[in-house]
Amino acid sequence: MNKPPGADGNPPNGPREPRSSRWSDLDRPPLNVTALRRGLVREGGLWSEVDVVQRTGSTNSDLVARAAEGRAVEGAVLVAEEQTAARGRLDRQWTAPARSGLFFSVLLTPSEVPVARWGWLPLLTGVAVAAGLSRAAGVDTALKWPNDVLVTVRGEERKAGGILAERAGDDGVVIGVGVNVSLKEDELPVPTAGSLALAEAVSTDRDPLLRGVLRSLEEWYGKWRAAGGDPGVSGLQEAYAAGCATLGRTVRAELPGERGIVGEAVAVDGDGRLVLATEDGVQEPVGAGDIVHLRPA
């Protein structure tokens, strides 16, 4: 584990050994918080503050706690260089080397949007993240329902990012994003994972990548909020469908209670649910569960 700079314990006049420093990996420089604030926090914009911490358990947990204590307002962004207790959907754990990706959470309070439409926020974030990464990193991205971000590595779709939304009190939602940026093949948590570097991104500089993703999120959130959360009027439903690699494929939905459905993913409905057409001729919407892309027979 990398340690922060400190006393190296060498004698004052003796030979000096290289110190272990959290900045020692030159391929993974730290984020420039001053530049991020200058580029993102502006009058009339969504982002109200940007904080970067070196290490924490979970940015989502931290930001939910800040909101509960009244120490965060809408547009707060909390970024970690390293997370030790990061969580994905269904409380899955995942870890990544320090400064190897984008690990951040944002606080949103869409008071003018009916709560029934807040379920679109993770999908909206997926659209924004995919678009921001495509522009800033120069990689092809796709979405696996509901909100996994896919990249192509040697002709194979791999998950490079994920999104987790949690309620923060009665009027807020904290959305966490994790994206693998510079992970090498031998650092992947599972063989089916990917990273921007493995997808041959034109840039793995995390500063412009983070700015690009947050600007894209601000743009999509503004459209959706202005439309009262209507996914059709805001263009969100169409954009999600256009970028969703799940649609048109045969998939297996693994549902709570150990129930499963196999069918063709034919649509994402107005509530953000994935609609499966089964062999029985039934169209069944899926609102929660794991989706497995099945290979053609």
From TrEMBL:
GO terms for molecular function: biotin--[biotin carboxyl-carrier protein] ligase activity. Keywords: Biotin, Ligase. InterPro entries: aa-tRNA-synth_II/BPL/LPL, Biotin_CoA_COase_ligase, BPL_C, BPL_LPL_catalytic. PROSITE patterns: BPL_LPL_CATALYTIC. Residues 36-225 form the BPL/LPL catalytic domain. Its EC number is 6.3.4.15. Residues 1-11 have a biased composition (Low complexity). Residues 1-29 are annotated as: Disordered. The keyword Ligase applies. Residues 16-28 have a biased composition (Basic and acidic residues). SUPFAM superfamilies: Class II aaRS and biotin synthetases. NCBIfam families: birA_ligase. This is biotin--[biotin carboxyl-carrier protein] ligase. It comes from Streptomyces violaceus (Streptomyces venezuelae).
